[in-house]
Design goal:
Layout (H helix, E strand, L loop, with lengths): L1 H21 L29 E6 L7 H14 L1 E6 L5 H14 L4 E3 L13 H14 L5 E3 L23 H10 L3 E3 L18 H6 L12 H14 L5 E3 L9 H10 L3 E4 L4 H5 L2 H10 L4 E2 L10 H9 L5 E2 L9 E2 L6 H15 L13
Parallel strand pairs: 1-2, 2-3, 4-5, 5-6, 6-7, 7-8
Antiparallel strand pairs: 9-10
């Protein structure tokens, strides 16, 4: 009889809970996403005001004529004049990619090489890696991309984490400087990934949806990984580094400004952090205006429709509009309304300055 009574009570509780949920008394936070009732001017922007270079893109499969023709059409619709493919690989595959791009969309698809770290303990690793980099440069690679796996996931033969500033890589950075190859480097991830997954974590929803991004128990702290990155910038002043994703300081622009001041060979790009800029429009506009010669346009994952949000944030004065991935940003965005001078540098002039292989004749001839 006691068990029967408990069952009846539980059944009644469930009915009450369901009734509350259907009446809106109880709701999961991640489901709460109401459309705004705010009535303000809206200027959805599907095409950039100026031709732009996306310095942070990834393409590696099926790069045949049909692929490039489709890509060129999408780029034209966005007003993207060129993109930098950071997933060039190395060796013959890189050469084939460069040759195909040059055949079908010349000057519009610039390829960066990558390096392989699995044999870092081999006594010949450094020399062979530098030689391969020289070969890739001769075969058309115009820069080097370093993935976040270096400093996080890559291990040596003893299972130790390979630090970003491992001295065996110093000749690689130096060679890039010699060859005029900029290094676009992605280190770590947003700092909240290293923090406890609880109600105090602003990235709680993203870490729920993408649990593999939780780093609270990772062997190296966020601060350590970032400091290793800055160490190579300082040690190799003759090499140009492009610090991906605003160096994960889009939420702390004062610190990013200090880093840019201290390291003149460091540039940065806005890939995957437009939501951070869009929630601080006055501070972001001031920062991009002051450092207009050091910031490039980047997107990261290639999805044509997602560029529209970038254009709207950078070009308009719109208020309170949504980001396209709520788990990245549950807040609303505001336009920065950047002046043309800043937009032109962000969109293409800074890229023309530091990335070889771009054809200046494909862009407006302005002072």
């Amino acid at each position: 009889m006691k068990l029967q009574a408990i069952a009846i009570l539980l059944f009644g509780f469930c009915l009450t809970l369901n009734a509350q949920q259907s009446n809106g008394d109880v709701m999961d936070w991640e489901k709460y996403d109401p459309p705004s009732t705010l009535v303000v001017p809206e200027h959805p922007t599907t095409r950039a005001k100026f031709p732009f270079v996306d310095v942070h893109s990834h393409h590696w499969r099926g790069l045949d004529r049909a692929y490039f023709e489709k890509l060129a059409k999408e780029m034209d619709e966005l007003h993207m004049q060129a993109m930098i493919n950071l997933s060039g690989g190395t060796g013959l595959s890189l050469k084939n990619m460069v040759d195909s791009a040059q055949r079908y969309i010349p000057g519009r698809f610039i390829v960066f090489a990558n390096i392989e770290l699995r044999s870092i303990d081999d006594p010949e690793f450094t020399a062979s890696t530098v030689t391969q980099l020289e070969n890739d440069h001769r075969n058309g690679a115009r820069g080097l991309k370093i993935y976040k796996s270096q400093g996080m996931d890559n291990k040596d033969s003893k299972g130790n984490r390979i630090a970003i500033n491992d001295p065996r890589l110093d000749p690689v950075w130096e060679k890039c400087g010699e060859l005029g190859m900029p290094v676009l480097i992605h280190s770590a991830d947003p700092a909240p990934f290293w923090q406890p997954w609880d109600e105090q974590n602003e990235r709680w929803l993203e870490l729920k949806v993408r649990s593999g991004r939780r780093r609270a128990d990772f062997e190296a702290s966020w601060e350590q990984i970032i400091s290793e990155q800055h160490d190579i910038f300082r040690k190799h002043p003759n090499t140009t580094f492009i610090n991906a994703h605003l160096g994960w300081f889009a939420n702390n622009l004062d610190t990013l400004a200090q880093l840019l001041d201290a390291m003149p060979n460091m540039y940065t790009e806005i890939g995957a952090v437009i939501a951070e800029l869009g929630r601080q429009p006055r501070a972001a506009k001031a920062f991009l205006t002051k450092y207009q010669d050091r910031v490039l346009f980047g997107k990261d994952s290639y999805n044509p429709e997602e560029y529209h949000t970038y254009f709207r944030v950078l070009e308009t004065a719109d208020e309170y509009f949504p980001y396209y991935k709520r788990y990245h940003a549950f807040w609303r965005m505001y336009g920065l309304d950047l002046p043309d001078e800043v937009l032109e540098k962000l969109y293409y002039k800074n890229a023309l300055k530091i990335i070889p292989g771009l054809d200046p004749d494909q862009y407006p001839q302005t002072n």
